């Protein structure tokens, strides 16, 4: 079955990049680990909270590529002689991807008590109106 793209609509010109971003995001972050919350504190402030128990600041990475916010974690192998009888705390790598709207910026991040908080701020974008001059070919 062929995938139908929302960007294929004739009135949506130039949205192919957003369609590719959404497709990439869907493929890269659907495994459910780590669990996360997204909060809206007011009309312009968001907070993404990820449960990252066992990860240190050095093992976490937050990047912004175009409009994609990528949060990843890779635990450093510790030379540990311990034998686990049961290991319920996940020690696996992860990557979560979020697509940000125009005007949404990352304003900061913090790690406390095993929770990674990423703060987002939506800036008001002034609408742009531009008059297009029509040239006469006569």
Care to describe what's here?
This protein is mainly beta and 138 residues long. The chain has one helix at 16-28; strands at residues 36-42, 45-51, 60-65, 68-73, 94-99, 104-112, 115-122. The chain starts with 15 loop residues before the first helix and ends in a 16-residue tail after the last strand.
Name of the CATH architecture of the domain at 32-76 and 86-125 = Sandwich
Topology, number of strands: 7
N- to C-terminal distance: 51 Å
Discrete helix count: 1
**Beta-strand proportion:** 35-45%
* Overall spatial form: elongated
What is the CATH top level name of the domain at 32-76 and 86-125? Answer: Mainly Beta
What is the H-and-E element order? HEEEEEEE
What secondary-structure arrangement, pairings included, does this model have?
Elements: H1 16-28, E1 36-42, E2 45-51, E3 60-65, E4 68-73, E5 94-99, E6 104-112, E7 115-122
Antiparallel strand pairs: 1-2, 2-7, 3-4, 4-5, 6-7
Quick overview of this protein structure:
9% of the residues lie in helices and 36% in strands. It is mostly beta strands. The strands form two sheets. Strands 1-2-7-6 form a four-stranded antiparallel β-sheet, with no helix packed on it. It has a three-stranded antiparallel β-sheet with strand order 3-4-5.
């Amino acid at each position: 079955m062929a995938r139908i793209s929302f960007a294929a609509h004739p009135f949506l010109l130039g949205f192919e990049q957003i369609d590719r971003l959404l497709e990439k995001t869907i493929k890269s972050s659907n495994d459910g680990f780590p669990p996360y919350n997204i909060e809206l504190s007011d009309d312009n402030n968001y907070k993404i909270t990820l449960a990252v128990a066992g990860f240190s600041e050095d093992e976490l990475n937050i990047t912004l590529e175009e409009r994609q916010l990528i949060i990843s974690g890779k635990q450093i192998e510790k030379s540990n002689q311990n034998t686990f009888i049961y290991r319920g705390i996940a020690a696996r790598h992860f990557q979560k991807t979020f697509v940000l709207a125009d005007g949404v910026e990352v304003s900061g991040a913090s790690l406390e008590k095993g929770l990674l908080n990423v703060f987002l701020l939506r800036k008001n974008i002034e609408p742009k109106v531009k008059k297009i001059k029509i040239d006469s070919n006569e």
